[in-house]
Amino acid sequence: MDKALQTMINNMPEKTGKNLEQWIEILNKQNFEKHAMAVKFLKTEHGVSHGFANTIVTLSKEKDAPSVDLVANQYTGKEQLKPIYTALIAAVEKFGEDVVITPKKGSVSLIRKIQFALIKPATKTRIDLGLKLPDVQVQGRLENSGPFGTMCTHRIQLHTVADINAEVIDWLLLAYQRSV
Length: 180
What we know:
Blueprint: H1 3-16, H2 20-30, H3 35-46, H4 50-60, H5 70-74, H6 82-93, E1 100-103, E2 108-111, E3 115-123, E4 126-131, E5 143-144, E6 154-158, H7 166-178
Antiparallel strand pairs: 1-2, 2-3, 3-4, 4-6, 5-6
Helix pairs in contact: 2-4, 3-4
């Protein structure tokens, strides 16, 4: 299982008051039709933060929830990109303890108070790092959001670990700092 996801699952009882299995039991009793409805329920009825609520709902939909490795599934057939993902996560974890790393089926959301970035293996040779930087002009490595639509305002294409340079970290840090 991805280290960040496992850490989130391990921290769940302390941060939310219940472990993953307990949350899945609660959700199964509700029988929500849509992902967003279940997330809203956990946030409003149980005071769970968005990052934890989204992770709980995502994992509740998997048959073997605790053993599902969403990140590993994203990089199946794209294993050469996994070190880029690992390096991005290592950089983000240095920003602060308030970063919530939320793996999903096709991407990983990085959340503080709000989502500030998204890591997506876009092709077999490229990761797209989506950033939420409203009012920042396209410049340097920073491109228009591309496939992210309104989720992120910009993206940076990464092909190798060496592509994660000071400029990329600075943009990622700025998105983190603005996500309060």
